[in-house]
Design a protein that fits this description.
The protein has one domain. About 25% of the residues lie in helices and about 25% in strands. A five-stranded mixed sheet has the order 2-1-4-5-3.
Length: about 140
C-alpha cells in the first residue's frame, strides 16, 4: 500500500509539472528560511534579504521550494528561522504554489517556485529552537 501511495504521488506530481514549465537553467541557490506568520513563500536568498530588508518588500521576493519528488522532501528539522539550505534545481517560469501546498482560508499571493533535485543543509537552527523552548 505504501508503494502504491508513493507511486500515485509521483504520478500526480509529474502530471502537475507537465502543465508548468521549468526554466532551462539548472542552478545551485542558497536560501535562508524566513518565518512568516502566514503560509506565504518563506525562502529568500541572502542578496534579497539584504536588498529588501529595509523596504518591507522582502516577502514579495521570497520563493516557495518544491522537491522534484517526495524522496527529496526536507526533514522536519529544517524550516526554522535562519536555516540556510543550498538547493540544486530550476525555477518554474511562472509564479504559483508548490505541489504540496496546503491552501488555508488566508489569502496568499503566488510566488516564484524553485523545484529542487538535491539539497545540502548549510545551517540548521533546529537544536537552538528546541533548546530555547525547553524541550
Amino acid at each position: 500500500m505504501k508503494y502504491l501511495s508513493v507511486l500515485l504521488s509521483l504520478l500526480i506530481s509529474s502530471c502537475w509539472n507537465q502543465s508548468h514549465r521549468l526554466e532551462d537553467k539548472i542552478q545551485k541557490v542558497q536560501f535562508h528560511y524566513i518565518s512568516w506568520a502566514c503560509a506565504c513563500a518563506n525562502w529568500a536568498t541572502s542578496d534579497n534579504i539584504e536588498k529588501y530588508k529595509d523596504t518591507g518588500k522582502l516577502s514579495d521576493n521570497c520563493v516557495f521550494i518544491e522537491p522534484a519528488n517526495k524522496l527529496f522532501s526536507l526533514s522536519d528539522t529544517i524550516g526554522y528561522s535562519g536555516d540556510i539550505v543550498e538547493f540544486t534545481g530550476q525555477y518554474y517560469e511562472e509564479k504559483g504554489f508548490p505541489n504540496d501546498y496546503i491552501k488555508t482560508e488566508e489569502p496568499v499571493d503566488k510566488a516564484k517556485i524553485f523545484r529542487y533535485t538535491a539539497f545540502r543543509v548549510i545551517k540548521s537552527n533546529y537544536h537552538n529552537y528546541i533548546h530555547d523552548n525547553g524541550k
